[in-house]
Specification:
The chain is of the alpha/beta class. The chain has 14 helices and 13 strands.
């Protein structure tokens, strides 16, 4: 039985052209700055985000922690969403490793933080308070239905941050999904960010790797922080080569994932015992809430797995499905048939 794996876009395996590029990669020692393939990927990434420089790191988590450590010192405060990946899924790394104080604000269902909430959370200069240094936004927002944050929202948040001397970091793990869904260049979504991270190993299909983009000075300091975290890699051109293919060949096809996610959401909304906010699905992520009594996210996920469909339980009565490039439209229809059978038997 062919498994239809909708747990995450992180499960994507490298394409044949990535494997070829990896085999042929020109490599050197990247800690000495001598890996030409890594250097090329970093230049491409900086260019795509409209920044002066970029740094290749092993994961989205490292991209975020390196950025936070570079912007903030011990005891500094950062404002972020209470549903953000950094706040929920990154082990509180900024507190554990950097002594950075998190100030979570409620995420709206569309992934934004209310501008007035951000404004109210910025600390005045007072001996009792930590210093607010950083605002973190996530685009697309994973736990908020994969919603893309719009250019004008980024601009409003950025303007407020600048007025108060705050830096802005964007966790853009899926920034290209946002760019494709909104039909804007990714750099427009990064324009108000002092730093932006994005992942090659999610919807873009590369096996490993993320980038942090920002000013030259910021990236120089981020390079030091990557090293102390053990993220200085040697002949990393082997994996960077796949990243270059990801950026050149895999961005526009994200629209197919978005169409499949939409097809899934529409189908799910017709299945008794499930509730889906179909209007919220504009990128590759679909959340469904189980309204059927007695059925849990885990039980449904187990039953689906038994029939060759994988989804991720993300709450007691909630599941997440993510469209990705190994899943075709027909697979979505098959998955819908399996779910309908389970929910109606
Ligand atoms: N997200 C993963 C899981 O950790 C939940 C997923 O399957 O969605 N920022 C965002 C917005 C993310 O969604 C993720 C990964 C990361 C950062 C971390 O990236 P990695 O896994 O490369 O450290």
């Amino acid at each position: 039985m062919q498994v239809i794996d909708l747990r995450s876009d992180t499960i994507t395996r490298p394409t044949p052209s990535m494997r070829k590029a990896m085999a042929d990669a020109d490599v050197g020692d990247d800690v000495f700055g001598e890996d030409r393939t890594v250097n090329r990927l970093e230049e491409m990434a900086a260019e795509r985000m409209g920044k002066a420089a970029a740094l290749f790191v092993p994961s989205g988590t490292m991209a975020n922690i390196v950025s936070q450590l570079t912007h903030c010192g011990r005891g500094d405060e950062m404002i972020l969403g209470d549903q953000s990946h950094i706040f929920i899924y990154e082990q509180g790394g900024s507190a554990a490793l950097g002594g950075i104080h998190p100030r979570p604000l409620p995420n709206h269902p569309d992934g934004t933080l209310a501008i007035q909430d951000i404004q109210a959370a910025i600390r005045p200069d007072n001996v009792h308070f930590p210093r607010t240094r950083l605002l973190v936004l996530e685009n697309t927002h994973n736990r908020c239905a994969g919603t893309p944050l719009q250019v004008d929202y980024m601009a409003r948040a950025g303007t407020l941050a600048r007025q108060h001397g705050l830096k802005v970091h964007v966790d853009g793990a899926r920034i290209f999904n946002a760019a494709v869904a909104l039909n804007v260049p990714a750099r427009d979504l990064a324009a108000d960010a002092d730093s932006i991270s994005f992942c090659l190993s999610k919807g873009l299909g590369a096996p490993v790797g993320s980038l942090v983009c920002g000013t030259r000075d910021f990236i120089e300091e981020a390079r030091r922080n990557r090293k102390v975290l053990g993220g200085g890699m040697r002949q990393a051109g082997i994996i960077a080569a796949a990243g270059i293919v990801a950026l050149t060949e895999m961005v526009t096809r994200l629209a197919d994932d978005h169409a499949n996610a939409r097809r899934l959401a529409m189908g799910l909304s017709d299945i008794p015992g499930l509730s889906v906010d179909t209007a919220a699905v504009v990128t590759n992520i679909v959340y469904m809430d189980i309204t059927q009594k007695g059925m849990t996210g885990q039980a449904l996920s187990d039953a689906l797995a038994g029939e060759g469909v994988r989804m991720l339980p993300t709450g007691p009565k909630r599941l997440r499905a993510v469209a990705q490039h190994h899943v075709a439209g027909e697979d979505i229809d098959r998955a819908l048939g399996v779910i309908r059978n389970i929910m109606t038997r």
